Amino acid sequence: MKPLPKIGPYAIDVAALSGLAHRYDPKACSRTDCCCARYEVAIAPGELERLRSYVPLAARYLAELDPAADPFKLAANGQWVIDKGKAALCRFGYRTPEGITRCAIHAAALEAGRDPWTAKPRVCALWPLAATGSAKGSLLTVAGDAYEFACNERRRRPSPLFDPGVLELVERVFGAVFRGEMIERCEAFIARGQRDRRSRSGRRG
Predict the structure, then answer these.
(1) Are 13 and 138 in contact (CB under 8 A)?
(2) Using one digit for the tens of pLDDT, what is the confidence trace for 142-162?
(3) Which residue has the higher pLDDT, 179 or 28?
(4) Is there a contact between 7 and 148 (Cβ–Cβ < 8 Å)?
(5) Residue 8, by phi and psi: left (phi above 0), alpha (psi -120 to 50) or beta?
């Protein structure tokens, strides 16, 4: 098997990423399960203090959240996670009067004039994509249960190679340069595979 295209520490799971169509639609969360209730949100190193700084402003959207409280806890594996609140939602998740699930950190960042995608935990900004492994060698892929959610669908024909929604996710987390390199290297990876198959087919003929 050929090695996957790589950008920095990330190997790109081309088949998984090209097969996903994603549409960010909080309204869908009112009809189905939502990511804010499914997972225990893990906090990456260096994120904790930034997230704590949003608690006082985020508390304005959450009646149950004490601005002086710490909604984070240390898990058994030694990693910080966000605690859960009512209805098994993430402690920062809340329902609007219309029944739509929202993120209080996202709302607080918008109110403060900041980018909500860099304010919230990276794992949340990246979902339904997932970076698995270690800093020395990670795989950028799709969360295993992504297709159980209404905002994600399987693409029948990956053309162009990546869905616009997936590229938007990649750019907001890793930046425009990473996005460009990912497209270029993955298209080259696909082209090489096609040439190899034609070559093998020619030799058999």
Answers:
(1) no
(2) 999 999 998 999 998 878 999
(3) 179
(4) no
(5) left
